Structures are given as structure tokens and as C-alpha cells.
Amino acid sequence: MRACRPRNRDRVCEHGHPVGCHARHEPGDERLGQPICGDCYDYVGAVLWQAHAGALWHRFTLEVRRTLASEAGLSRREFAKRVRVSFAKVAEYQRRGLVHFHAIVRLDGPDGSSEIPPDWADHDLLTRAIPPAVQRVTVTSPPSDLGRWDLIWGDQLDIRPILLDQTADGLSERAVAGYIAKYATKGAEASGTVDHRLSCPACGGRGRLRLMASCGRCHGTGLKPGLHLDALPVTAHARRMIRTCWELGARPEFTALWLRPWSHMLGFRGHFSSKSRRYSTTLGDLRQVRATHRATKARERNGLPLLGDETTLVLGHWRFAGSGYSPGEAIMAEHIRQKVATARKIATEREDG
User: Fold this and answer.
1) How many CB atoms lie within 10 A of CB 13?
2) Is the entire prediction scored with pTM above 0.70?
């Protein structure tokens, strides 16, 4: 006879909680994203992964270039002469408080998006190169008596082509623009945390100033005056991650991660959106176009002629501010005059003596 093994739904962890959830939850259920057993959840590993997510993405961008060159049968130097790899990514918070990235990877000619890449640099090449590059990327956490974590990407990887034809099998460029706009408006508060910093602005959460003196604003707690971690209007899971950020941020080996100033982001301190240099136009160019547009509209409303490319218009308004010292400056000047006169008198008496 064979002994009957317990079903997975009947198994429990060492703390007496079930190892899995078999219930069906509504989209707005507050239990979504919360760990079944908080004592089994690796909060230290989760916070450290958040803090290194930006470095993990950077290493992926380097590794995928190496893999693309290998798949194309070229050296990295020769591949870079023929193809430029461009990236754009947006970070989105999951309900469990960890981020995942939505990224666009594009192959351009060597001069950027204005040039078409070779025929062999297509979607199939990216599909072959991205999965192994994702699997090879690893970031190791700083050495600590708590242990060291090898931080890697997860198993979920969804690669889809971006097509100009909306009827084809893939994502249209309009859908991609909608996704980016959607994720750009979602912050960390979607995972149950707060949308403002918790650390003291004077000491940056350290609780002390540079001269090792206790911070007079937060009185050594590192928190903003009037705040308390246990009183934050957040979920229990988010509070546990915030407290883990706060505790790890006090350790010297994790000082460079700035976990306390970024505890409200659950440890993630990267940009929610970033792109490679030649992926598209720069933000500076966009700001200049908006400034020029506003200036042109203002001149049209006021009936002023449009400025030519070689015309420079300087507007200045002068008004009389006053002369001499202000009352406060007069007091300081008189005090300085008296000190100088006294010093000269003492020097004269010494010479006479």
C-alpha cells in the first residue's frame, strides 16, 4: 500500500499558514498583493532587489548588445558600426510592491532612428537575443552579516513585436503609446504605500548631521517631524517593506543604497521612465519647442511682430532702489567702524608705550 500524500491545498508553512491561495479574488480585493505569511516572506531580499533594479536594467542593456552581436556572428565593435540598439522603459509597481519594467527595444542604423538597420537586424534577432541576455544578468548585494543575495530577473518575459499596421499580429505603435501614458501616471501608491518622502529633509534620514551631532529637527529619529511608521495609512505589507528599508538603511554596508530617503518608494530609487540617448528627441528639445510656441502666441496676442532668426530683443525695466545703507546695514557698518577704530587706538598706545 502507498501512503496518501497531502494535497497542496492542505499544506501549511512552519508558521501554520497555507502555502498557497486557492480563493478567487475580485479586482478590488484588499488581500491582493499581500503575502499569505509575512514571516516567510523575504522582505530583505525584496527591498534589496528594488534598490538594485536600476543596476539590473543597466546590465541588461549591456548584455543584450553582446548577445545580439554573438547571434549576428559579429564582434561587438563591428556590430556597433552597423546597428544601434535603442531602449525605452517604464517602471510599474505591482500590487505586491515590487516593480516590473515595460521596455521597448529597437534596432536602428548606426546614426540612430533616422536610418534603417540592415535586413538581418529584425524582430527575430531580438527574440533570440533577449531571453538569454535576461537569464545571464545578475547583481550581487553588498556583503553583510545578513547574507548576500544574487538578484536576477524573474521568469515572466513577454516579447511582442511593435507593428505599424494595427490589423497585424502584434502591438500597434498607438497601443504602445497608450501603455506608456498609462504606466507613467501610476506611482508607488498603487501598491498601498504613500506618495511623499518619510525621511527628515535636514539629515536625509540619518538622524545625525555631518559633524556626528544629533539632528535637531527630527531629534535623531530620521523621520519627518510628526511622522511615525506605525501610524502611516498604508497596508500591512507596505508598512513591513518601509520598516525593512528603514532598518537596512541604518546599516553602513547599505548606506550607498539610500534606503531611508526612498523608503516611501519601497526601496526603488530608479527613474520611472528612461530612454537611451538616440531613441527619440530629447526632453531639452521638447522644452525649447514649448517655450518658443508660448513666446510666439504671446507676441500674437499683444500685436508684436514676430522675431526673425537673427533678431535679438532685450526687455529691461529699471527702477530706483535707493542709495546708501539700509537700516540693518547701517548698524553693521557702524559696528565695524567702531571695531576698526578701537583696534587702531590700541595699536597706537602700544607704539607709544
Assistant:
1) 12
2) yes
